[in-house]
């Protein structure tokens, strides 16, 4: 197996798939806002993803663990291409029914996207050797971050010159490129999973597996908590920077893009270490993340001007983005290494569902808190709690070294799931 060629094909598939989806998603938000003039219409389109994710969880895990991975990937891409093509033609011809067409399309895209992400996540053991897991995961995250930075720029430029219906065809091209990369990938032998008579039986067995594995359960609960606290950034930073500190939209956009740029730089720096980071390492990086996180509300106390405030948030977000790579990469590799292949589809699907549910819950709670309490104390309190949770996790892991086998502690892996 040519590992470098294989990794290039995996990264190419993920980048173009994510880039096309991000451009289309950006254009969709603008289009709904333009047509309705209401945030409610855009909000309705945004809740589709967590709802579909919740309903699909038992089915996605069952499919990924029961069928050939390459065929699943090809099927999900073909479904996406057909759905987008039909939508594009329908929207051009029957534009007055755009909202119904868009909702149906988003459901199809979410199903295909869930299949693609969970299958690729579960296929790493078939695609590259174990010693390349962390390297691949760090490059993939940097690639996704690059797509996140570039896609709004491309989306905004295209939105001003082409009708929205043609964005569907733009993503079709991107998905075809992704499909070509998938065809070129070489998959190893996929172990035969346990055959379940009912999907519910399969799903319950996945939950039981997670419950019986103390390490996987610890990491899973930790991941759930992290995604809850990350809502403080998603809600608090826009509120503080625009409404409290009165930064311009351009300055806010610059600070937001710094997170993605930091993740790109983090991926590059990660490659320079030439080592495998352990489970405790990931939690230690999380403590560092929590400490920096605690300082996000500092500019409220000091009137340092909009330019200095922008520089402060750009620098801090750059550091946080870099640290996310050092947290995510070893954590992702743990599940890929330690969860048996026949269970990976269900475990990743359950993780994705937990994330999808806790992010909106955290968003609502922090939305209320930022209306009632100063952002300085919210970030400080959340950072301290996050650091304490991470410290407890490190202590618990070090007390249960045996659960990390067959990997040794200094060469361990784990997952920080963030969709």
Share of helical residues? over 70%
Shape: globular
Q: How many discrete structural domains?
A: 2
Which runs of at least 5 residues are low in confidence (pLDDT < 50)? Answer: 402-419
β-strand amount: under 5%
CATH class of the largest domain: Mainly Alpha
* Class of secondary structure makeup: mainly alpha
- The name of the CATH superfamily of the largest domain reads MFS general substrate transporter like domains
What is the CATH third-level topology name of the largest domain? Growth Hormone, Chain: A
Q: Give the terminus-to-terminus CA distance.
A: 29 Å
CATH architecture label of the largest domain: Up-down Bundle
Count of DSSP strands: 0
> What series of H and E elements makes up the topology?
HHHHHHHHHHHHHH
Largest sheet: none
Radius of gyration equals: 21 Å
Average per-residue pLDDT, rounded, comes to 77
How many helices does DSSP assign? 14
Brief sketch in words of this structure:
This protein is mainly alpha-helical.
């Amino acid at each position: 197996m040519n590992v470098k060629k294989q990794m290039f094909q995996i990264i190419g598939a993920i980048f173009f798939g994510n880039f096309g989806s991000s451009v289309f998603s950006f254009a969709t938000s603008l289009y709904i806002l333009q047509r309705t003039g209401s945030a409610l219409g855009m909000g309705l389109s945004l809740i589709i993803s967590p709802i579909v994710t919740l309903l699909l969880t038992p089915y996605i895990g069952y499919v990924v663990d029961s069928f050939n991975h390459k065929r699943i990937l090809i099927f999900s891409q073909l479904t996406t291409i057909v759905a987008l093509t039909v939508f594009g033609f329908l929207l051009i011809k029957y534009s007055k029914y755009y909202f119904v067409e868009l909702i149906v399309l988003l459901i199809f895209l979410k199903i295909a996207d869930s299949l693609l992400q969970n299958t690729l996540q579960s296929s790493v053991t078939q695609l590259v050797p174990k010693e390349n897991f962390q390297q691949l995961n760090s490059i993939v995250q940097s690639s996704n971050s690059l797509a996140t930075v570039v896609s709004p720029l491309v989306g905004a430029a295209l939105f001003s010159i082409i009708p929205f219906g043609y964005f569907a065809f733009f993503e079709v091209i991107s998905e075809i490129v992704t499909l070509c990369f998938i065809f070129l990938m070489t998959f190893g032998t996929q172990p035969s999973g346990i055959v379940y008579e009912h999907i519910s039986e399969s799903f319950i067995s996945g939950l039981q597996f997670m419950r019986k594995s103390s390490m996987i359960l610890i990491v899973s609960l930790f991941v759930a908590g992290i995604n809850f606290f990350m809502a403080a950034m998603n809600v608090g930073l826009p509120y503080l920077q625009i409404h409290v500190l009165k930064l311009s939209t351009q300055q806010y956009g610059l600070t937001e893009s710094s997170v993605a740029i930091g993740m790109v730089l983090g991926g590059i720096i990660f490659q320079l270490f030439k080592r495998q980071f352990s489970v405790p390492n990931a939690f230690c990086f999380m403590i560092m993340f929590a400490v920096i996180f605690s300082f996000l509300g500092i500019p409220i106390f000091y009137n340092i001007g909009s330019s200095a405030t922008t520089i402060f948030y750009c620098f801090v977000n750059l550091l946080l983005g870099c640290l996310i790579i050092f947290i995510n990469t070893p954590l992702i590799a743990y599940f890929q290494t330690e969860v048996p292949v026949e269970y990976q589809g269900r475990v990743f699907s359950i993780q994705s569902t937990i994330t999808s549910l806790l992010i909106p819950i955290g968003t609502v709670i922090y939305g209320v808190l930022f209306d009632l309490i100063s952002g300085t104390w919210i970030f400080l309190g959340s950072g301290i709690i996050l650091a304490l949770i991470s410290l407890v996790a490190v202590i618990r892991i070090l007390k249960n070294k045996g659960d990390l086998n067959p990997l040794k502690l200094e060469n361990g892996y784990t997952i920080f799931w963030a969709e």
